[in-house]
Amino acid sequence: MIVIIDYHVGNLMSVQNAFLKLGMDVVVSRDHDVIRQAKGIVLPGVGTFPVAMEHLKQYDLIDILNERQQAGIPILGICLGMQVLFEKGYEVCPTQGLGFLKGEVRRMEVQAKIPHMGWNDLIMQQKHPLMQYVHQGDYVYFVHSYMAYPTDDELIAYCEYGQEKITAVVAKDNVMGCQFHPEKSGKVGQKILLAFKEMVK
């Protein structure tokens, strides 16, 4: 079973529907007992970094996410859900993140329109099981104004926007994140969710 974390930030139903279309056993929950039964966890999110972290605290989800991360359960963050996996964010005000990945989240510094909204092609930095069915140049759908600045060893894929390198996929051990929305990225997004399904034992 895959659990989509319900912390009142974002598009839970569209993410759930994307998994259901692939025949996955998936539920939306913030119940600790349900989360402990999960073979995989998805952390979605739309909004701002400090609000996301405040909601995780409000619903007492930080300790359980730490517990599951340390237990080796695959965790996939999507958009804002990916950003809060990092150590710190600077949207609105400096805010501590979950710290599963090294680096910070800051406003994009690009010579192009912000937010970065629309389809962009992926450039692979290194191989990873999450991206096993995705090819160089495949297009995915982005909507964001802030981006993660990860370490090189945790950067899996990026895109180019405004002549800058924009973080697209990150991973370390059992923790993964997509800045774009797989659930809105057509067949390419489905391939990524399918790969995540296959990583969930």
Describe the protein.
- It holds the Pfam family GATase.
- Its main location: cytoplasm.
- GO terms for molecular function: glutaminase activity; imidazoleglycerol-phosphate synthase activity; lyase activity.
- This is Imidazole glycerol phosphate synthase subunit HisH.
- Keywords: Amino-acid biosynthesis, Cytoplasm, Glutamine amidotransferase, Histidine biosynthesis, Hydrolase, Lyase.
- The protein has 201 residues and is an alpha/beta fold.
- The chain has a single domain (2-199), classed as Rossmann fold, CATH 3.40.50.880.
- It is 26% helix and 32% strand.
- The chain is built from 6 helices and 14 strands.
- It has helices at residues 12-21, 32-37, 49-58, 62-70, 80-83, 186-199; strands at 2-5, 26-29, 40-43, 75-78, 88-89, 95-96, 103-107, 116-121, 123-124, 139-144, 146-150, 155-161, 164-172, 175-178.
- It has an 8-stranded mixed sheet.
- The chain is globular and about 45 Å long.
- The termini are close together.
- The mean pLDDT is 96.
Keywords:
four-stranded mixed beta sheet, alpha/beta, 201 residues, 26% helix, Rossmann fold, eight-stranded mixed beta sheet, globular
Give a brief description:
The chain has 201 residues and is an alpha/beta fold. The protein contains 6 helices and 14 strands.
What is the CATH fold-level name? Rossmann fold
What number of structural domains do the residues give? 1
Q: In this structure, how is the largest beta sheet organized?
A: 8 strands, mixed
CATH architecture descriptor text: 3-Layer(aba) Sandwich
Mean pLDDT, nearest integer?
A: 96
Q: How does the helix and strand content classify structurally?
A: alpha/beta
At the first level of CATH, what is the class? Alpha Beta
Would you report the number of β strands?
14
Helical stretch count? 6
User: What is the C-alpha radius of gyration, as a whole number of Å?
Assistant: 15 Å
CATH homologous superfamily grouping? Class I glutamine amidotransferase (GATase) domain
Protein name: Imidazole glycerol phosphate synthase subunit HisH
Pfam family, one: GATase
Pathway: Amino-acid biosynthesis; L-histidine biosynthesis; L-histidine from 5-phospho-alpha-D-ribose 1-diphosphate: step 5/9
InterPro entries: Class_I_gatase-like, GATASE, Imidazole-glycPsynth_HisH
